[in-house]
Amino acid sequence: MAGYILRRLLQAIPVLLGTTFLIYFMVFAMPGDPVVALFGDKTPAPQVLEAVRERYNLDKPFIVQYLLFLGGIFRGDFGISFSGEPVSDILARTFPVTLQLAAISTVFLAVGGILVGLISGLRKGGIFDASALVVSLILISLPIFVVAFTAQYIFGVQLGWFRTTVGAGAPIQDLILPAMVLATGSFAQIVRLTRASVIETDGQDFVRTAASKGLSRRRIVPVHILRNSLIPVVTYIAVDFGVLMVGATVTEGIFNVPGVGRTLYQAIIRGEGPTVVSFVTVMVLIYLIVNLLVDLLYAVLDPRIRYVK
Q1: DSSP letters for the chain
Q2: Quick one: pLDDT at residue 279?
Q3: Are residues 198 and 115 in contact, defined by beta-carbon separation less than 8 angstroms?
Q4: In the structure, what pLDDT confidence band is assigned to residue 31 with cuts at 50, 70 and 90?
Q5: pLDDT per residue as tens digits for the range 227-262
Q6: DSSP secondary structure letters along 98-130
Q7: 207 and 223 Cβ atoms separated by less than 8 Å
Q8: Nearest Cα to 113, choosing from 227, 233, 228, 244?
Q9: Residue 87 and residue 104: Cα distance in Å, rounded?
């Protein structure tokens, strides 16, 4: 097990370097001059422009900029944003908010999606199954901004259960509604994936053998059917967690959530290479760690899986 973890960590190094290089190159290749755009309609003196470029290493070739950034990352220095604030401070302020939002969203889609998918798979062809498939298809088809505005109007304006906007310093309960909105598309996918996996597992020989030994359905479903059906579901949830972290831009914008997504979008618009790449680097690290943990969880869900040389 220790050797497997070490190999995975070593494999993560080229992935991390390749990702940061590609992102930095794409930001570098964006048209326009981010320094000029920083001043808006004003026309600063050439000396001012040169001073700003020198401060952010924008006067150097691309490869030199990237190597300087990479060296700073290894020292724990993520650079300075165009507003003059250290990127590490921006990460410390926005990252916990998006992490809470993604975590709450993952709990919703995991618990609710697996439960609905399990019942739907066990009652294949019934009314509940048909209703679950129709609802999941509708949720997949709706754009996220339509779901967000509808949820704001119904649960925020009409019913008054939640605040329509979050804002800075809002309590964690204000993230429940945007988290539910963020989870809608993935929730539908989890329902359909769990349903298909449960139906397939329910027809396996080991399930029929357990039933022939006299085990009750109440024992067979959680131990034999659900446990063996969770591997593809857990894989999807792990991948989706990273997607939720990065893909929360629209949801954070509509609900005014001061998180990573909205900050990252603003940094892309301003052409802030160090800020964009720093945020993406943290996201890649989270993605790699979550996938490693999921791989280790496979052995818990399925005892037949062992990590050998």
Answers
A1: -HHHHHHHHHHHHHHHHHHHHHHHHHHHTSSS-HHHHHTTT----HHHHHHHHHHTTTTS-HHHHHHHHHHHHHTT---B-TTS-BHHHHHHHHHHHHHHHHHHHHHIIIIIHHHHHHHHHHTTTSHHHHHHHHHHHHHHHS-HHHHHHHHIIIIIIIS-SS-S---TT--GGGGHHHHHHHHHHHHHHHHHHHHHHHHHHHTSHHHHHHHHTT--HHHHIIIIIIHHHHHHHHHHHHHHHHHHHHTTHHHHHHTT--SHHHHHHHHHHHT-HHHHHHHHHHHHHHHHHHHHHHHHHHHHH-TT-----
A2: 79
A3: no
A4: low
A5: 778 778 877 887 777 777 766 777 877 887 888 877
A6: HHHHHHHHHHIIIIIHHHHHHHHHHTTTSHHHH
A7: no
A8: 233
A9: 25
Residue 89 phi, psi dihedral angles, 5° rounding? -70, -40
- Residue that is written with structure tokens 């220790």 in the block: 2
